[in-house]
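User: Please predict the structure of the protein below. I'd like the answer in structure-token form so I can feed it into my own downstream comparison script.

Assistant: Understood. Taking the following sequence of 189 residues as input:
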Amino acid sequence: MSDGQNKNVSEAKGGSDDWKHRAPYKVHENDKNFNVRYEGGCHCGRVKYQLSRSCFQWAAIFHKEDINFTHGHHDLGWYDSSEKTTKHKLPCKVSCAYCRTPIMDEGRNMILLFPSLIKFESKEDRDKFAPTCHMFYPMRQLDIPDGKPKWTGIDSKSDLCEDSPPDLKRKREEEKKNEENETEGKGEE
């Protein structure tokens, strides 16, 4: 077998260590552009990481470049449910290999981090992770009467559900009418 074929077989079996040098696992040592805002880790303390920004939503979705493992990234375990393998193959579940604390789900471009592991320095920091809306609300398992917008799909790219705040629904309907009027106006020119 050629070196290229050996490398491909090794990677297919999970033998490659390339993952150690790519986001999110590469260590950002001495990276002045990595602004540490939050820290987290597994329950036993073997795996530790830093985050450079607040998440997009309470599900804690981050770009891979926004996480820095400061300790224990060699102590991680993976599981790919599609192939039922513990090799690092995307997408996969990531956990501490020692205590098995679920750390995150790793996708091709993003990670879904479990916020309960983040150590917040203040209530203000914790509040930055508070939900601002609910997506795919018609598929919910239970009603959440919290006064937050409830979208049928991904936030403002979809429609608001009946359970959303009435003033927000009115505003959204007005926006849609204005968009329709603008579209019709351009078609007449």
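That's the full token string. The first strand starts at residue 38 and ends at 41.
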